[in-house]
Amino acid sequence: MSSSSSPCPLDAEFSDQIAALLAPPSPQSEQEYYDELIEKTKCDGIRVKRTKKIGKGVFANKEFKEGELILKDQILFAAQHSSNKVDCLVCSRCFCFIGSVELQIGRKLYFQNTGLSRKQDCDHDTISSTSEEDFPTELLDEGEGFITDHSNGVGSSTSQKLKENSLSEEILESLMNGDLSLPHSKNFLLPPVVACPGGCEEEHYCSQQCADSDWGLFHSLLCNGNGVESTQRDALLRFIDHANRTNDIFILAAKAISFVILKYRKLKQHIENSKDKVYQEVTDGSCFPLLFDAWKSISMGFKGRWWDCISLPDEVSFSNEASFRMQIRDLAFTSLQLLKDAIFNKECAPLFSLEIYGTIIGMFELNNLDLVVASPVEDYFIYIDDLPFPEKEEAEKVTKRFLNALGEEYSVCCQGTGFYPLQSCMNHSCCPNAQAFKRDEDKDGQAVILATRSISLEEEITISYIDEDVPFEERQALLADYGFRCKCQKCLDEQP
Ligand SMILES: [Zn+2]
Ligand SMILES: [Zn+2]
Ligand SMILES: [Zn+2]
Predict the structure, then answer these.
(1) Can you give the pTM of this predicted structure?
(2) How far is the CA of 474 from the centre of ligand 3 (A)?
């Protein structure tokens, strides 16, 4: 599809290394990787296997009953949607809500007041596998195009409502700083807010452990706090600003690249410290074997380049397909240049090629799951509503006006997108035996997969990537976005 030559000089300069990074992993290293991952998640009821008929898939290693937990999959790469950040304050590593119910409410109303808050649909019971839904690439609609559009109800009506409910900035501040506590909020305690170790205002954590882990895995290269040199900080801000204006999937791609660079550095440090023979071999030539090793978790998940695998929006006619795909590629290239200005690392140069950048984004495009975490603010107001007389009336004297000010959007959940290494191996079926579903106790960003019927030993575990209740032709059209034609039992039965 990408017939014209790449605008990125690194593509040609490092073509051999790029080809090696993009080669499919050996069956043995693939098996080892997934076995190790399953051991780490402690969900030993499943096994990732490759078969001739279906390729890679997830299979039951035991019997599951209907409703039983199959897998809690740890996040490999995830990000909260930038537009959701004004509504929910969550840990940037595990995505649980932090601070207090008061802080969540006060902060949201404060942003509403300043016109920053945006309305979003929120269905946190089911989460669907996605391609275009969560990082909408709503393209070519208004001249410039490529705008991630979450803004369908900004500002004026809510701030009007706020004025009518007479909530002063002072009251909101006292909610946020803890001077004003709401009745019964002790039943909804949240972890305290831990600041970013680099001192930026962007990221917050639920614990020092989450802060340190995020710093070590991703954030130390992407932090724009005071510790960072000012030219690098400006470059980072330009990258983030571009991602926020176009498509926040670039933020996730930056995390992935940062992850590989940091892992590469750790591997190198380890070898230098151990001073063994391998070090000699490595330093004699290039450090590419280490980069290859650091790249491993991405090599397991990618499928194609973003501009090749992205589905064609309805507004784009087939005759414009090639130019549409080139525009996507150019957009990615613009983002990559900005990222390169900020965090380029010479020893990891192949990572900054457009081929690799496109492949990382393509992996997210085809595999990502909506990240959804229910809001404790919703639980809080439901709790108040369920209180017996006279406690309820007593509590509502205080809470009612906040609820009114929040309006229908009082329970906006945390929304983002995530790549989950084991869940991403699950194949689609229109009559699936499993489903991504958050239970009441699941209060962070992990992917939770439950059995929707009993599953026997060795049976393949499948989920639905689409709404499986729509008619046959519509399902096939939706699945074409994922690059395949479904041959599940339901499709075979309904095939005309
Ligand atoms: Zn956390
Ligand atoms: Zn930071
Ligand atoms: Zn099907």
Answers:
(1) 0.87
(2) 11
| 20 vs 5: CA distance, rounded Å | 20
Q: What angle do CA 465, 86, 384 make, to 5 degrees?
A: 85
What the block records as the tokens of 418 is 């995530």
Gap from CA of 90 to ligand 1 centroid (Å)? 8
Q: Which ligand is nearest to the CA of 205?
A: 1
- What is the SS3 assignment for 449? strand
Residue type, 178: G
Ion ligand 1, residue ranges at CB < 5 A? 91, 93-94, 206, 210
Instruction: Please choose, from the candidates 83, 76, 81, 77, the residue with its C-alpha nearest in 3D space to the C-alpha of residue 116.
Output: 83
Quote the pLDDT of residue 330. Answer: 97
Question: Are the CB atoms for 150 and 412 separated by under 8 Å?
Answer: no
Report CA(241)–ligand 2 centroid distance (Å).
16
Tell how far the Cα of 200 is from the centroid of ligand 2, in angstroms: 4
From 224, 113, 137, 184, select the one nearest 395 (Cα to Cα).
Answer: 184
> What's the gap in Å between 213 CA and the centre of ligand 2?
12
- First-to-last C-alpha distance (Å) of the chain: 32
| Ligand 1 mean position, distance from CA 94 (Å) | 4
pLDDT < 50 stretches in the chain: 1-3, 119-121, 123-156, 158, 161-162, 284-285
State in Å: Cα 229 to ligand 2 middle.
13
Identify the CA nearest to 9 among candidates 454, 238, 352, 382.
352
Q: How far is the CA of 199 from the centre of ligand 2 (A)?
A: 5
- Ligand 2 centroid–CA 115 distance in Å is 25
Q: How close is the Cα of 221 to the center of ligand 2, in Å?
A: 9
Say whether the peptide bond before residue 390 is cis (omega within 30 degrees of 0): yes
Tell me how far the alpha carbon of residue 137 lies from the centroid of ligand 1, in angstroms: 29
Q: Which of 416, 475, 427, 476 is nearest to 449 (CA)?
A: 427
Ligand found nearest the CA of 489? 3
Residue 144: the pLDDT is: 34
Residue with tokens 């032709």: 473
- Partnered with residue 455 across adjacent β-strands are 64
- Calpha distance 287→154 (Å, rounded): 50
Inter-residue contact 459 to 429 (CB < 8 Å)? no
Would you kindly state where each structural domain of the chain is located, as residue ranges?
42-74+420-496
Residue whose structure tokens are 């906006």: 412
The alpha-helical segments, DSSP class H, found in 416-488 are: 472-480
CA of 493 to the centre of ligand 3 (A): 9
The architecture (CATH level 2) of 42-74+420-496 comes to Beta Complex (2.170)
